[in-house]
User: Fold this.
Amino acid sequence: MKKIPTLFQRDPDNMSKVLPEVNLAAEWVLSGPAIATRKFDGTCIMLDPEGQWWARREVKPGKTPPVDYRAEETDANTGKTVGWEPIGQSSFVKAWHDALGYVGPVELEPGTYELCGPKVNGNPEGFDRHTLIRHGCELIEEFPTDFDGIAELMRSGFPFEGVVWHHPLDGRMAKIKRRDFAPRRASP
Assistant:
């Protein structure tokens, strides 16, 4: 999975926040068919067409990638490489195995999933058990695409980590996270 562009430009003085300027790589969200879906907060897992499972893995500059690592993309700003490692050598293998046991004998489609649960990244979603959630499965109706509308919604208790927009024709994606917006400053 390549890195999904953020809908708005990052603030160069505080890269954890966004500015009210649209990211050119995500401009299509404002003008075209864009389907808003819930962004779950876990870790990305992929089932490839051959039936092999992979875990998303980021490798920092100067570090040796794991055995059988499949690099996808290197960030020009940070030097970090995003790619896939076989699930069997991932630190999330037990949680993934538990999630498969919960799914049962259901045939899962090739694609990407979010692995969430008690032993995944502090369990921000609050799941009682490890769970695999297909990316793009939970639609969000009538989500704003303007900066002020999104900022207001995100700052007023939006219940999810964020939103991922999917282009229904060509597969492009763009995202925004609740934490991309600085909280409002209190009036003096």
